[in-house]
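Customer escalation, tier 2.

The customer says the design service returned an amino acid string that "doesn't look like it belongs to this structure." They asked us to rerun it and document both sides in this ticket. The original structure tokens are below, unchanged.
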């Protein structure tokens, strides 16, 4: 009996055959009785990088599970051929048909062949029965979809063993997520041994499993031999500075093929960064590298930056939450200038100050490759964003299209700079926490309302009516194709297309819901005019002006009358009286008495003036 143990060499084919035919093996345990159960003898050809003990357990467990699928008197043959993966045949090996003396053929019942999915499903269920655990419905559904997502399912070591034994046979699954299950040393041992055999899985997530150093060794050994894994998430496993050396050796290996590597939320520290720096310099496959939350500090990130200068593949680098300060961030930015592939740089919560931020952007003035800079949760206050935007405004040739400062506030000056930068770079965006005062908040709200009003689909209807010098009744008649005095959704949609009105189907649905006030599924002429009035009122309130409406659009009956008749008709009886007559006629008894008093006072004043003049002339006459 031959069996594959652990990994297989790339140049030779290895096979596992549980049993031969009944003639070769002799009596079965059932023939000897229940007390004659003997463990099967095994012989390994190659050793697993994790250890021969782990590989022997994987092979023996798979042998016991597949043995439970055999019918009485039958055998199961499991073959593994290098290059095509596991080719497991679980049908019965029936004896050849023989003829009796009379020449008649003996007929035997044939067993239905099982698909790979059915085989993997049966192996998993048998393994769960053997380990006395409850089968996971998520895993069984994942076998059909080709993506296993068992995040935070409490699998433990035994549950991981059952999953690994099933995935040895399966050939449809490409993504495996077993994060937050505390799989332990036993679980990661079975999982990595399975990955040495199954070459169809390309994305693996074993984060938050507390794997520690043993898990780091198992994963690094697996990466040295499996070049089909493209993405590995191993965050939150308490890897230390010595474990970083194991991953650095794997990264430098010529068969290393990972595109995405996540080692965040570990304890690599400064020494870990110094181990990873030279490995990053020689690697040419990693595109996304996440080493955040690792306490790298300045010395650790400096080594990573030196490796980044020589790297030619990394496009997304995350060094957040490492306490690197202004100097460490400056090292990374200078390395990004030398590097010609880095497009996204994330440095959240790294103690970058309001003075260090503009210095970073000054270093990126000539960088046209870096597109996104994320620096949230840094003590930059309101001065940092404003000074950074001044630098971007002064260097429009800079390649940055996104500046993310989620917890920082923008001043009025910063808002003005953003608008001016967007005029030069329309795709430029700033993700920020808000505005510093109510004036800025109101200003941004008004701008948003104006944009919504200008992009309203009803404005396209108004423009169409004005451009074609139509009345709203003419537009209604064009849209009402069946002449039932109502416009259905289909008529409204087809009318927009036939009249070349640039309104999408989604906007047509929005207009139908807005105009259909009685919710009968159709629009009548009254609802169309009412919708026009509401939009014009809203437009005038938001924009301060009223859009031009065609003069040929009659909205009311009074507007259709000749203007001469309206002007010739007096509005009231009082306005038709002469102005002089109105002023000369007192309006009440009090006004009459007041006028009389004024006249008497004026008369007395004239008499007093006359007497004064006469008295002044009498002495001159006597003389």
């Amino acid at each position: 009996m031959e069996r594959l143990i652990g990994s297989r060499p790339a140049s030779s084919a290895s096979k596992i055959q549980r049993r031969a035919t009944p003639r070769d093996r002799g009596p079965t345990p059932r023939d000897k009785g229940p007390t004659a159960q003997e463990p099967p003898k095994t012989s390994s050809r190659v050793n697993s990088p994790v250890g021969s003990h782990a590989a022997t357990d994987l092979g023996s467990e798979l042998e016991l599970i597949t043995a439970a699928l055999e019918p009485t008197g039958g055998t199961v043959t499991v073959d593994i051929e290098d290059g095509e993966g596991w080719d497991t045949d679980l049908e019965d090996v029936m004896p050849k048909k023989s003829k009796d003396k009379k020449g008649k053929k003996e007929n035997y019942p044939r067993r239905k062949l099982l698909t790979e999915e059915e085989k993997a499903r049966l192996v998993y269920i048998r393994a769960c029965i053997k380990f006395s655990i409850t089968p996971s419905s998520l895993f069984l559904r994942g076998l059909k979809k080709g993506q296993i997502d068992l995040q935070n399912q409490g699998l433990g070591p035994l549950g991981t063993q059952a999953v690994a034994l099933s995935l040895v046979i399966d050939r449809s699954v490409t993504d495996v997520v077993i994060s937050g299950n505390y799989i332990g040393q036993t679980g990661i041992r079975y999982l990595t041994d399975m990955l040495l055999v199954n070459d169809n899985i390309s994305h693996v997530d074993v984060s938050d499993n507390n794997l520690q150093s043993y898990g780091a060794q198992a994963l690094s050994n697996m990466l040295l031999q499996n070049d089909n894994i493209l993405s590995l998430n191993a965050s939150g496993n308490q890897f230390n500075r010595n474990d970083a050396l194991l991953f650095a050796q794997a990264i430098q290996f010529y068969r290393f093929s990972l595109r995405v590597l996540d080692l965040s939320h570990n304890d690599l520290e400064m020494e870990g960064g110094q181990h990873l720096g030279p490995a990053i310099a020689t690697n040419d496959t990693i595109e996304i590298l996440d080493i955040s939350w690792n306490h790298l500090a300045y010395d650790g990130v400096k080594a990573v930056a030196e490796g980044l200068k020589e790297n030619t593949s990394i496009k997304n680098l995350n060094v957040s939450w490492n306490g690197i300060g202004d100097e460490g961030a400056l090292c990374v930015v200078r390395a990004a200038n030398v590097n010609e592939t880095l497009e996204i740089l994330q440095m959240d919560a790294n103690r970058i100050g309001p003075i260090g931020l503009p210095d970073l952007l000054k270093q990126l003035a000539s960088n046209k490759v870096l597109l996104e800079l994320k620096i949230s949760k840094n003590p930059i206050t309101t001065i940092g964003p404003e000074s950074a935007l001044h630098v971007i405004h002064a260097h429009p040739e800079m390649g940055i299209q996104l500046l993310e400062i989620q917890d920082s506030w923008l001043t009025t000056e910063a808002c003005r700079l953003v608008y001016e930068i967007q005029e030069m770079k329309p795709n430029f965006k700033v993700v920020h926490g808000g505005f510093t005062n109510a004036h800025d908040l109101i200003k941004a709200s008004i701008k948003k309302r104006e944009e919504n009003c200008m992009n309203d689909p009803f404005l396209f209807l108004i423009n169409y009516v004005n451009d074609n010098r139509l009345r709203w009744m003419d537009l209604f008649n064009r849209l009402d194709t069946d002449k039932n005095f109502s416009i259905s959704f289909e008529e409204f949609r087809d009318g927009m297309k036939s009249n070349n009105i640039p309104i999408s189907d989604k906007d047509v649905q929005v207009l139908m819901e807005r105009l259909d006030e009685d919710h009968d599924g159709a629009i009548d002429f009254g609802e169309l005019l009412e919708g026009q009035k509401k939009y014009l009122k809203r437009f005038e309130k938001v924009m301060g002006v009223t859009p031009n409406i065609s003069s040929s659009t009659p909205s009311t009956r009074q507007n259709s009358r000749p203007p001469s008749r309206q002007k010739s008709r007096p509005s009231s009886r009082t306005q038709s009286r002469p102005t002089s007559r109105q002023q000369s006629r007192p309006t009440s008894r009090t006004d009459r008495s007041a006028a009389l008093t004024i006249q008497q006072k004026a008369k007395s004043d004239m008499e007093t003036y006359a007497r004064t003049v006469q008295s002044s002339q009498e002495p001159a006459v006597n003389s």
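Tier 2 assessment: The sequence is consistent with the input. The mean pLDDT is 78. The first strand starts at residue 77 and ends at 81. Sent an explanation to the customer and offered a walkthrough call.
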